[in-house]
Holin
Amino acid sequence: MICRTLLAASRRRKKIMEQIMNYIKPELMTVAIALYFLGMWFKQAAFLKDKYIPLVLGIIGIFMCGIWIMATASCATARDIAIALFTAVVQGILAAGVSTYINQLIKQAGKTEE
């Protein structure tokens, strides 16, 4: 019974992760990986409280995605700039969300069920 429940939960997590991956540009997945390791570093550092780590990762993710988007997009008109900014914000938040989600998956996989 427990094995079936764990298997079903694992399948749900995998399906959710696949759905999220459909929205993140593949070239920006490296940002999510970098944010994951940065979050691990923040967790061990004493200067940042745990509750602020997702917020800081989100801001850094937006900044990192913004750099990539501005480097690859042609921003000739105000509309192009608005689209680039929107894309940077959305992709940065998604990358930070994926890094936090991966962190939680790893934590939950290490826990034992009673």
Q: What stands out?
A: The two ends are 12 Å apart (CA to CA). The chain has a mean pLDDT of 84.
